[in-house]
Design a protein that fits this description.
With about 110 residues, the chain is of the alpha+beta class. The protein is about 35% helix and about 25% strand. It is built from 3 helices and 4 strands; from the N terminus they run βαααβββ. It has a 4-stranded mixed sheet with strand order 1-4-3-2. Strand 2 and strand 3 form a beta hairpin. Helix 1 packs antiparallel against helix 2.
Length: about 110
Amino acid sequence: MKRRTVVYLPAAQRDLLDAFDYVRKDSPAAAAAWLERIDRALGRLASFPRSGFVPKDRRLAARGYRVVVIDQHLALYVVGPQAVEIRRVVHGRRRYAFLFKGAKTPR
């Protein structure tokens, strides 16, 4: 199986930094450990890009999105021929479909 590059798009990077900063206010150590768990879990997508599930939201599924659950967060991503694009990382209780209105279809 071909390994792909895992790429964090700018929106996902902002999501991670915002969540990291929020947790860091209470516990810098917990924030660092959380970020490490996220990175380790998403790094596995390089070898197993289709291991996440297809979202229930039909619009996201039609655009090729997949989802990985990490603790209480959802990482939404798209598998391309060369790379896995991490598009967003959101808290699982958050309604997230609105984040993708007008999102481009994967290549």
